[in-house]
Amino acid sequence: MPLHQVIIPSLKQPLLYEVPGDEGRSPLIGRRVLVPLRKKSVTGYLWERAETAAPDLEIKPILRFLDETPLFPEAMAPFFSWIADYYLCPLGLVLKTALPPGLAVFEFQKVSLTAEGKRALKEEALAQEERNLLGALLRSRGRALARFSPEERRLIKELGKKGWVRELKAWQKEKASPRKEKWVRTGPCFEKNRFPPKDFPLFDFLSTHPTLPLQELRRHFPLSHQRLTTLVRKGLIEMEERLLSSDPLGEVIFEEKGPFVLTPHQEEALALIGRGLKEKTYQALLLHGATGSGKTEIYLQAAEAALNLGRQVLVLVPEIGLIPLMEARFRLRFGGRIALLHSGLTDRERLDQWQKVLKGERPVVIGTRSALFAPLTDPGLIVVDEEHDPSYKQGEHLRYNARDLALVRGRLSSAVVVLGSATPSITTLYLRKQKKLEYVGIPKRVGHQALPEIHLIDMKEYRKGRQFPILSPPLREAVEKNLKEGKQTLLFLNRRGFDTLVLCTLCGAVFRCRNCSLTLTHHVHTRNLLCHTCGFEMPLPESCPSCGGPGIKTLGLGTEKVEKELSALFPQAVIDRMDRDTVTGRRAYYRILKRVEERKTDILIGTQMITKGHDFPWVTLVGVLSADLSLNWPDFRAGERTYQLLAQAAGRAGRGLHPGTVFIQTFNPEHSIFRYVKNHDYLGFYRQELQFRRDFGYPPFSRLVHCLIQGNNESRVAEVSERLGDRLREEARTHRWDPLLEILGPVPAPIAKIKGRHRRQLLLKSPHLRLLRRAAGTIVGWEKELTQGQGVRIVLDVDPVDML
Ligand SMILES: [Zn+2]
Ligand SMILES: [Zn+2]
């Protein structure tokens, strides 16, 4: 019997199994199978064929195939392998991330209460823990053994001896299996005289509705199960089960204005894309243009060209909130040929969309980062809109970047990849310089809304002692004026998990590491300033080393605090807040936006969530409360991020007929970035930023692998980190990796503790990808030995985006 590798999502390595009977002939890679593993049965995915196995290996046969056809096209296998290799992670994790959730079928050990146990619970005098456990089993009608703690399991063993509980094997079925619905239709003996007179209304109804869902019928006639059975037995009606398709597509929001006359820039972009599509060669194109510059029209026409050639289209947006807009535009052109894939769908909806794409029924896929894995057999066009957005990077499990992988998938499937942004990432712009992608810059269309006016507010002027107002007087006046005129205001605050910055309120100076040029962060318990990249440390000075004055202050603002203060300032205004605390799901997000759209909200305060892509014609004022927090983020991308955030925030002002105004509050208005922001000169900023990156060897002039060491025990985490650092340095000496590989750390992570877990980090940096990957691969090899029995985990992040 043929041998095949099977990928089991929870395992680090593929295992070998025998493929029984004639199954070996049909297409195999990607088929879902049930295989024996230790004493259980689990779900796996068939992978490549293996010629031979080691002689002493016991090979078991596959138990059964769970589907008729593979769950992804075979052509995607090299893509998955590439990802596993590049991100140094098991193929199982890649498949788990890529495939729709809720498809695992497995066997598990279940504990349930016996009749004797029920009696004991009622009648016997039990110890408290026994009562708790039996009671829990009674309420839950049995529970997986794996969900009990070791102590509870010991107790279960004892209770088992008494015959009060028992362990048995149970099956976990797919959570995402397609939903079925019962339908009724008229039967072969459907005649009026066969119905009893009291059922004539039912007969009449069925005469006009010969086939309908049972639920619908029951809404008119309360039919009991028994009566239905009788009707079926007499042949008056028939019942059947139909697959319920759950389509998440929403309503079309607006009508398209057309026809479109293309600008020369649009023509140029489309000609480039068209050529790539026709020649069927990989090609990357950067569309550099603001919202409203006609990028979407290029996507649409390019998609049409791809479809006309019989190829498929994948469109990625960074956030769920941006899907409805893109979807609406595409739906007007392509109608029902669109599928949506994003995390806001239920498992069932996601599987349904996945299967429609797999069958070729929906050749256009729109979605967030995970849609990158859509099972398209021949994607000809891949669009990554707002390509600079950090949301394309997944921050846990498989830490992939969908923007980077879009280029990889494009290369593997000879597709044209279009990256679009008003503020492309520095790395992408650098690819242009290396001639690795084509570039089309699209200026804002003439006659479109005027660019907003940008005012810089020097917060040093409004300081009182070490205190300063949340709203500077000019911004406060502007908000007041806006309120009086019935217009809306957005107040933007950059805040993430960790939000304090030490600066001088007299001269605006911040403390930077002399090795890395990154901002030092303040540690409350040591009163020290620390560099989280190289570990450089210094005591927090009393007076400012730059101006000598007593202006040193910790700066930190929360949206909640801002909301409170604003309510006091403007008691008559309706103030709303949007941040991670108020927005827990898609609904909450829309609800807040809807209120702004309906002009119910006067002032919206929020984090970067409010700056993305929404058009509110009555928002004429945007205030950035503290540009310093973002600008001095301890990350080499702080400048890039700040420019992108400011540009995006500014882009929210004056989208309608009324011109917009932007106020940016900062202690450091002299910072060169503001000059570029004011002049809307991103390429100028890019040139300056590139110089900084070159000077300090940051990407794109190097690549990084971030290594996080975490665990509950602080000293063990420190110990493992030190050992890892020492071994790595020794390895580097032996192989002479120096000076091409830099090893920075270990140091405490910027967020040194999350949910009781202590965190340290180590950063590998090198201009040589191969060397860097070799070093990172070494860490993977040591992981087990270093961490075993320590309660410590090592997490590698290739091309990290957030290093907190
Ligand atoms: Zn440093
Ligand atoms: Zn100073």
How would you briefly describe this protein structure?
The protein has 804 residues and is of the alpha/beta class.
The number of E-state strands comes to: 34
Question: Quick one: CATH class of the largest domain?
Answer: Alpha Beta
Q: Which second-level CATH architecture of the largest domain applies?
A: 3-Layer(aba) Sandwich
Mean pLDDT across every amino acid position: 87
Cα radius of gyration in angstroms: 31 Å
The tally of helices reads 23
Please state the overall shape, judged from the principal axes of the Cα atoms: globular
In CATH terms, the superfamily of the largest domain is: P-loop containing nucleotide triphosphate hydrolases
Measured by DSSP, the beta-strand proportion falls in: 15-25%
Tell me roughly what share of residues is in helical segments: 25-40%
Quaternary structure classification: single chain
Give structural notes.
By secondary structure, the chain is α/β, with parallel strands linked by helices. It has six domains: 96 residues, 3-Layer(aba) Sandwich (GIY-YIG endonuclease); 67 residues, no CATH class; 64 residues; 179 residues, 3-Layer(aba) Sandwich (Rossmann fold); 242 residues, P-loop containing nucleotide triphosphate hydrolases (Rossmann fold), CATH 3.40.50.300; 96 residues, Alpha-Beta Plaits, CATH 3.30.70.360. It contains 23 helices and 34 strands. The protein has a seven-stranded parallel sheet with strand order 15-16-14-17-18-13-19, with helices on both faces. Strands 5-2-1-4-3-6 form a six-stranded mixed sheet. Strand 23 and strand 24 form a beta hairpin. Helix 1 packs across helix 2 and helix 22 packs across helix 23. It is globular, with a radius of gyration of 31 Å. One zinc ion binds next to loops.
